[in-house]
Model the fold of this input.
Amino acid sequence: MCAKMASVEVECIDGFEDVSSALLVVDATEPVPLMEGEGSSLRVLGFDQCERIAFVKILMRFGIGNFYWKKFAGYLKQKTVEEIQEYGKLFLSHIVEDITELPTFSDGIPKEGLDIEAVHVRIGVLMSITDKVKFLQENPGASFFSKDIVQLYPELKHTRFWKEEHDLLLLLGVMKHGYKQWLAIVDGDATIREAICEELNLSFRNSYGVEEAISDKRLYQAVFIKERFELLEKGLGTEEANKIGSQIGDEEERLSFCLVTIPCISRGN
Done:
């Protein structure tokens, strides 16, 4: 049975395998109704309850990027890219509405417990990651953060082994594997693994067992990049807030910078 829509803070997309190499193509001659059915049988633009939950989980993991909906199609294997795009546009139009206590959006579609503010924040964070990676790739040698942000978060300073190039690889790993996919990021990049081992002096020689040593090393590495990413996330949040003349503090203040961009996105795509 599917979980409630409010449960969007997940690290996997249960029951929805990534099959991006075999995308579905369907010739839809009949328009799909906005809503049909009711209760647990409700469909929204043809998306059943489990597919709607999966859509939110995928969005919370990968964001919206440049509307590369094929990432979503890799998991929602019963949906075409076009169907996902239409549902995505509808979803974005919903989350830019004024937040109210009403159980439905303005078009009558149930909110199903969706934490809209959490979605706003996650989209903003993942958009800022994409923008930072693009900037660094287009401007080799540019500083990762300005001096004032590093002064605000001195832990961002690079060390003997962990450099700006590793921070960039970490952000690329988040874009590839998704938000909070720490073990996948560690397993997917040997350069990151080596830098962390040098930084933490993780040799694990003479340990109690080979398999246990490897497992422990992976966990130490995952914790390291989790903590490192949380620092980068703070820096990125402050950077984005400064761009729109805001001061960053708690979660509500972090909403401001992403709310500037989402309305334009939902109307223009």
